[in-house]
């Protein structure tokens, strides 16, 4: 640190209007301090240029460019510059910017590891909005990396965080008559740097920023870097540059499996989107950040729509309830009843479901009164009906559950789409010594043993197993925010997390949403959630 910067200790007044509170960060270009602006009484982030670079015209230009760019872009995702100038006493240029509360993406990922899918996508969407605004203003960032992406606490109600793109000091402005700029210095971080940035004299364009967008999206969704050469210890810069410039770029789905991660972390269609972002030929990438962001949104919309169309209603059954003649299912969705012969428990088919390695049962809600009809039938034909029906339903259950196990996490929630268990379920699961609940899919139709038979049929004839099909129920999503955040959120009496809660999948219809604040105060609303749509619930400050 130079002597001039070393003298900026707590209490020192800089440029007549800023009293230094503490040092915040230091880098090659200069240092950042928390300072009180005397004219407004507010805390600011005071960025000063390294005195050793003051005499360098290029460094001074890059420093002052950051002040101009913020106003030119006009986005809430770019740090606001409040004042800029030169300190008369030291002749050091400075920028006074809004002071952000939060942490950069590198620290966030280091602290928390891989983020929930919905949160990762929200961060990326805001990043895309920031870059799209910059590209519309003719600005190329050139150094996108986790350290330059700041996840700040939002000052807006209902918005838990806001992404700010930092360090536009090495950005380049594109004039209205040009579509690219020429590289005169190698700028950018190698892990996220487009290949053309390593070539002196190469043309940079808006698609230069699209390259790191693909790599950042992979990092956000998986918590891991894409490049093989950075795995393990002793990372070689030459090996990394060779991989970026020469080696084949494999689909992300393959890299996820190589890294031992769940392929479901990546939404369907992500491979194609990513590979277009990291085309080595800039002309073959998305033209700019806006096009890249919209393409990923389209991928996510299509995936979510297909998942909403195919979502079954699921209920949960406790195996211990299976031996009664007619038992209730915990109400996680439409109520259903399972009918078995009253005088004889169906022991053989159900014993399969009590084996943890076996498939769960598929049980159908019968018409009203069918239990009596079954009980009134001949004892000689009661058992074939139950046995064949149970066997057929078990086969359907195995197929349905096999398909459900392969169902990837939702792009909007990052969770597999099982219906939420009720409070009764939770209590039953918590009881010591009780078997784990079995998930079943509600199917329709049961055999009416008292129905008329074809002429000539004997009493011992065995009716065919009933057809079964999955009952489908419309679903929607709830997003819950609160000011201040971190209130305990419950939906229909079940705690689902602390605000913000994003894209919670629920059945279409009315739901009771409650927010319990840290001080114990409770706010509650009843909202109607349309099928296939998202409903936002915001609890404002009182």
Q: What do you see in this structure?
A:
The chain is α+β, with helices and mostly antiparallel strands and 542 residues long. The chain has four domains: 3-98, Phosphorylase Kinase, domain 1; 104-309, Transferase(Phosphotransferase) domain 1 (Transferase(Phosphotransferase), domain 1), CATH 1.10.510.10; 314-441, no CATH class; 475-539, Sandwich (Immunoglobulin-like). 29% of the residues lie in helices and 22% in strands. It is built from 13 helices and 24 strands. The strands form eight sheets. Strands 1-2-3-4-6-5 form a six-stranded antiparallel beta sheet, covered by helices on one side. Helix 4 (117-136) packs antiparallel against helix 5 (210-222), helix 4 (117-136) packs antiparallel against helix 9 (289-309) and helix 5 runs antiparallel to helix 8 (270-277). The radius of gyration is 31 Å and the shape is globular. The protein starts with a helix and ends with a strand.
Please, what is the average pLDDT?
A: 72
Query: Can you tell me the CATH architecture of the largest domain?
Result: Orthogonal Bundle
Poorly predicted sequence stretches spanning 5 or more consecutive residues: 173-187, 308-461
Strand order of the largest sheet: 1-2-3-4-6-5
**Termini separation:** 47 Å
CATH class of the largest domain: Mainly Alpha
Largest sheet, if any?
A: 6 strands, antiparallel
Number of strands: 24
Assign a percent range to the helix content: 25-40%
Instruction: Please work out how many helical segments DSSP would assign.
Output: 13
CATH topology of the largest domain: Transferase(Phosphotransferase), domain 1
Radius of gyration: 31 Å
Q: What is the percentage of strand-forming residues?
A: 15-25%
Structural class: alpha+beta
């Amino acid at each position: 640190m130079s002597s001039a910067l070393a003298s900026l200790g707590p209490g020192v007044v800089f440029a007549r209007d800023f009293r230094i509170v503490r040092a915040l960060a230091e880098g090659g270009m200069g240092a950042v301090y928390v300072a009180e602006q005397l004219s407004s009484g507010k805390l600011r982030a005071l960025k000063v240029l390294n005195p050793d670079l003051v005499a360098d015209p290029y460094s001074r230009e890059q420093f002052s460019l950051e002040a101009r760019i913020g106003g030119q872009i006009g986005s809430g995702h770019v740090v606001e510059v409040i004042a800029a100038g030169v300190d008369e006493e030291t002749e050091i240029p400075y920028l006074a910017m809004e002071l952000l509360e939060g942490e950069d993406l590198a620290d966030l990922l280091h602290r928390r590891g891989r983020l929930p899918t919905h949160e990762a996508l929200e961060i990326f969407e805001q990043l895309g909005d920031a870059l799209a605004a910059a590209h519309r203003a003719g600005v190329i960032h050139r150094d996108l990396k986790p350290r330059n992406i700041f996840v700040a606490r939002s000052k807006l109600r209902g918005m838990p965080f806001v992404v700010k793109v930092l360090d536009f000091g090495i950005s380049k402005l594109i004039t209205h008559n040009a579509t690219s700029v020429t590289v005169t210095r190698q700028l950018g971080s190698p892990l996220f740097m487009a290949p053309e940035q390593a070539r002196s004299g190469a043309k940079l364009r808006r698609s230069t920023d699209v390259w790191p967008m693909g790599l950042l999206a992979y990092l956000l969704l998986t918590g891991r870097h894409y490049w093989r050469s950075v795995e393990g210890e002793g990372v070689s810069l030459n090996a990394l540059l060779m991989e970026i410039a020469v080696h084949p770029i494999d689909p992300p789905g393959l890299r996820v499996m190589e890294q031992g991660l769940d392929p479901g972390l990546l939404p369907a269609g992500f491979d194609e989107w990513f590979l277009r972002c990291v085309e080595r030929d800039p002309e073959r990438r998305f033209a700019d950040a806006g096009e890249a962001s919209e393409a990923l949104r389209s991928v996510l919309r299509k995936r979510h729509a297909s998942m909403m169309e195919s979502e079954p209603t699921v209920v949960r059954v406790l195996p211990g309830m299976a031996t009664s003649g007619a038992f209730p299912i915990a109400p996680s969705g439409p109520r259903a009843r399972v009918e078995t012969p009253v005088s004889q428990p169906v022991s053989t088919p159900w014993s399969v479901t009590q084996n943890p390695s076996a498939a769960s049962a598929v049980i159908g809600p019968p018409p009203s009164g069918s239990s009596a009809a079954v009980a009134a039938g001949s004892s000689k034909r009661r058992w074939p009906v139950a046995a064949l029906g149970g066997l057929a339903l078990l086969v359907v259950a195995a197929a349905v559950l096999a398909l459900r196990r392969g169902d990837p996490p939702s792009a909007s929630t990052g969770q597999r789409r099982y219906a939420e268990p009720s409070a009764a379920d939770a209590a039953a699961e918590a009881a010591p010594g009780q078997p784990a609940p079995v998930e079943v899919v509600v199917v329709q139709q049961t055999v009416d043993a008292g129905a008329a038979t074809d002429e000539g049929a004997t009493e011992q004839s065995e009716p065919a197993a009933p057809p079964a099909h999955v009952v489908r129920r419309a679903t929607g999503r709830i997003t819950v925010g609160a000011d201040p955040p971190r209130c305990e959120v419950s939906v229909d009496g079940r705690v689902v997390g602390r605000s913000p809660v994003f894209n919670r999948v629920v059945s279409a219809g009315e739901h009771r949403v409650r927010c319990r604040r840290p001080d114990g105060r409770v706010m509650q609303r009843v909202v109607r959630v349309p099928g296939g749509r998202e409903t936002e619930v915001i609890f404002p400050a009182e």
